[in-house]
Specification:
- The chain is α+β, with helices and mostly antiparallel strands.
- It has one domain: Cathepsin B, Chain A, CATH 3.90.70.
- The strands form two sheets. Strands 1, 2, 5, 6, 7, 8, 9 and 10 form an eight-stranded antiparallel beta sheet that branches. It has a two-stranded antiparallel ribbon with strand order 3-4.
- Helix 2 crosses helix 3.
- The two termini are 22 Å apart.
- The relative contact order is 0.19.
Length: 205
């Protein structure tokens, strides 16, 4: 979904229009995507952010991208079912001592997970020649959440994965912003400190 009024530019996922994205629900409310603290094992609670980003993307694509329905096979998106989904993906995207260390690790694991469900995905990685803003928008325009790996602390977390759901630019100030799913909540950041990060999104082959 894209909007270009004179004063701003917005590119966001279809499923972000009502601020839900991946609406994992339980008795106390609805989360904005998954949360690594839901893993039973303490190691994955600390290191599992990349696996959760992949779980978010798989659920989202199953709902909004035709041909990807098999990426999430549960009856609904209750907390219990989404945790099972996270653990299914954990078999393909398993963190090391530094988590999921590269976009290629996450991309390769996600492609293998999709293949196990009969879905052929392609991982799209940002090259050094591609502007980060344009890459993020290219994913969102095809309704594919963009996984972002932040190596070093500038804003937010160090060596951490988040899932980008929206891009916004103020055409008067030229400031750019992103919205992300992070720890089951929605966050907004100025994009400038994140432009040196690594990014990946997925499309059907």
């Amino acid at each position: 979904m894209e909007k270009r009024p004179n004063d701003h530019e917005v590119v966001m996922l279809t499923g972000n229009a009502d601020k839900t994205f991946v609406p994992v629900f339980h008795g106390r409310g609805t989360h904005y995507g998954g949360k690594q603290k839901w893993f039973k094992d303490k190691f994955y609670q600390d290191k599992g952010c990349g696996t959760v980003a992949a779980a978010n993307i798989a659920w989202y694509m199953s709902k909004y991208v035709p041909g990807c329905e098999a990426l999430y096979s549960k009856a609904d998106i209750s907390l219990e079912n989404f945790i099972e989904h996270m653990n299914e993906i954990l078999a393909f995207i398993k963190p090391s001592l530094i988590g999921v260390p590269t976009v290629h690790n996450l991309g390769h694991g996600m492609v293998l997970y999709a293949q196990s469900k009969g879905v052929n995905l392609k991982a799209n990685y940002k090259s050094w020649k591609t502007d980060s803003s344009e890459f993020i928008k290219s994913g969102l325009r095809v309704d594919s959440p963009v996984a972002m790996l932040q190596y070093y602390r500038k804003v937010g977390y160090n060596w951490h994965w988040q899932t980008i759901t929206k891009y916004y630019k103020d055409n008067k100030t030229h400031e750019e912003y992103i919205e992300t799913s992070n720890w089951g909540r929605q966050y907004s950041y100025n994009l400038k400190p994140f432009k040196g990060n690594k990014f990946v999104y997925f499309t059907l082959k």
